[in-house]
Write the structure tokens for this entry.
Amino acid sequence: MRPYSRRLVFLLVFVFLTLSSFAQQTAPPADLDAWVARSMKQFDVPGLSIAIVKDGKVVLTKGYGVRKLGSPEPVDANTLFGIASNTKAFTSAALAMLVDEGKISWDDPVQKHLPGFQLYDPFVTREVMIRDLLSHRAGLGLGAGDLLFWPDTDVTREQVLNAVRWIKPATTLRSRYAYNNLMFLVAGQIIPAKTGKTWDEFIRERIFTPLGMNSSTITSIGFKPGDNIAYPHSRGWRLEGPLAPIHFTKDETWAAAAGIKSSANDLAKWAILQLDHGKLPDGKRLFSEAAQHEMWSPQIMNRTSDPKGLMKPLKSNFSGYGLGWALKDYRGHKIVSHGGALTGMVSTVFLVPDENLGIVVLTNQEESGAFSAIVYHIVDHYLGAPENDWIQGFYDQRQQSMKRAADAEKLQDAARNARSQPSLPLAQYAGEYEDPWYGKARITAENGKLVLQMTRTPLMVGELSHWQYNTFKAVFRDNTIPDAFVTFAMKADGTISEMTMIPTSSLADFSFDYQDLDFHPVPKPATNAGSK
């Protein structure tokens, strides 16, 4: 063989090996379809879609299953899902753009831009900063105020902003992390205050359009039969009934916290933008690298856990929250991620910056174990980590959680004094009650039973059955709404002074923040018996 021929052969072999190595580094797991099918079966998920991006390129976008049980339409890479709290990163990015433009600073007091904003504590009102709104450290409790907009209510964004002042804090400012949607709604209202555009308009014009997220939309209003959208599915709040499609969540009010509907194809573009530090494909910037550094830096730290068995690889050295992003480490790599949960849908956006890897999984069921098992299988593939049966691990974790809740309810039942009687005749519990931030609830006597209606929340109609003493158990007619214990306190004269609520089970989603409600009877109007 001539020398130049040998060199050509060597060159071709080198190129082949290089391309093969590159393909191995970028290709998704060979068993991905089988893994997804097994995960969907294990967790009973009707449909999902996935996006994988690596090194600035889209490796995979694909749909699996159906959009709605009982209908044949398949999920594809353009099917819209409610991404819920993955919206929070969009709100942070929008504010980052205003930081870059010099219109706001992360450390500005919120009142500088929203003069009418008030929290329960005047000191916190003066001191709370924009970055506090975006990092779950403003002192409110877990999910505080979520009943203002979930389940569907009639309140406006302005009414929510006004109601915040009546919600009592759970901790002091910046002392503890407590996940909260309410403060992201407040953060979203800074955008119209500074730009004259609504949050919705700003997100569409300044993020969706430059990124080419042409399918993405905000809120569930305007969908028509035949639109390429996944329907939410639920087994009920106990996660044990038959799976069925349910109504879309009405989320215009809390859009800045959880309102975006998007697809695998569109979120692949979002993930690439994030991994490229805010740079658009044409080289322009949506936001600066400095702004992203702030968003990806811990603003408050959380406790880490010590998982066992199949979940042991999830043991992390740190866990925190940035500005619209959750932060931790996995197998020595920094993870920037977020989950999203609506009634009937859960999703995740999962980034591994030092590997330039992004994964999106969108599902139309409420089982987070499904997307988690898929994400970690994909991540392990790219990290070259040992195989782990994540599907079994997350399913076991689910079953353990269900058992703990069932055991707690058994103890609850055993401790109940079923022979006790209410202090008053049932009809005397009827009437209107009012909470300073939520508004009114109404109890009526119907066919010898008490019925609770949360007046701002049409779906929250529950039958009250006596539990013990002056506590009743509310079972709501909509089975996606968790049961609650409703307790009445009495004055010395035997009249009702207060009505409070708590969830009956740990399976209740934290957004049903019954424990933050403090209802008091609304005085009945005086009657003029002597008037003519």
Residues 8-23 have pLDDT under 50 and may be disordered.
